[in-house]
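Supplementary Methods S3. Complex input for the NDP-bound model.
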Amino acid sequence: MTDRYAVIGNPIGHTKSPMIHASFAQATGQDIDYSAIEGPLDGFAGAVHAFRDAGGRGMNVTAPFKLQAFELATDKLERARLAGATNALKFEGDRIHADNFDGVGLVSDITRNLGVAMKGARVLLLGAGGAARGALLPFLAQQPAELVVANRTLATATALADSFASHGRVIASGYGDLAGQRFDIVINATSASLKAELPPVPADVFKDSKLAYELVYGKGLTPFLRLARNAGVPQLADGVGMLVEQAAEAFAWWRGVRPDTRALIERMTIPLA
Ligand code: NDP
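Predicted complex, serialized as C-alpha cells:
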C-alpha cells in the first residue's frame, strides 16, 4: 500500500518538497505519495490530525507553522526541543514525533557537499530566528573554534546564546561589534534577502573567509552574496543544498533509507552569477 506524506505551510504554492520526495522515492524504490497542503492559519492542528486520521504517516512543516508543530507533538527529539520548533513529524498510533532537520541539513551541505570543515573554524551566523536556533546544536557538534551569532535585535541573540550555554560556547554580538573581526565561514540565516536587503555586516568579516552561505535559495546573487564576492570570498552557496539535505534526513527518518542527494542538488542549483 502506498504510504502518504505531505508538507504543510501557508502559503505553500512555491514548495519544492513534493518534487524532492518523489525523486527520493523513485531513486530508493519506496512506495510513497507526497503532497502539499495549505494549512489554514487558524486551524493548523486540525489539518494535521485530519491528515493523520486519513492514514498519513508523516509531514514536513514549513512557515509559519514550525512552532505550532512543536507544540502539537507528543514526543520531541532533542534537536527539536532545543530549537523550540520542528520541521518534520512522524505519526505512530496516537503519538506525534517531532524532529528538526534544518540544522543537520545545513551542516551536511557545508561539510559534505561543499567540502568546508567546520571543526576548528571561526563561524559567524547572522540572524537569531528559527533557522539560526535550529542550526546551533548541529554547529556546536562540529566543534568550531568560535561560534558567533549576530543579530539586529541584540537581546534575541543574547537569549539564544544563553539557552545553548550547557551545550557549548555561543557568543552573541551586535553587527557593530563585528568590525575588525574575521571568520572562516559566514552564514546568512536572516530573512533579509527575501526583501533584497543586506544585513548590516561589515565587509571585514570576509577577509579570511573560505565560504559565504546564504540560507535563502533561488534568488541568485543576493546582496549578502554580492558583498562576499566583492570581498574576495572564494566559495559562495545558497540554501538549495540545505533544503535537499534536510529533506533527505526526514526521508531517512520515515523510511529507514537515506537517499543520495548530489544529483538532485546539481539539478536544482541555479547559477549564482
Ligand atoms: P525568522 O523570521 O525566524 O527570523 C528572521 C531573522 O532575520 C531575525 O533574526 C531577524 O532579525 C533577521 N532579519 C530580518 N530582516 C533583516 C534585515 N533587513 N537585516 C538584518 N536582519 C534581518 O526566519 P527564519 O529564521 O525561519 O528563516 C530565515 C531565513 O532562512 C528565511 O529567509 C528562510 O527562507 C531561510 N530558510 C531556508 C531554509 C533552507 O532549507 N534553505 C530552511 C529554513 C529557513 P531581528 O530579530 O532583529 O528581527
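Residues 3-100 form a domain with the Rossmann fold fold (CATH 3.40.50.10860). The pocket of NDP is lined by residues 102, 127-132, 151-153, 156, 189-192, 194, 197, 199, 215-217, 239, 242-243, 246 (CB under 6 Å).
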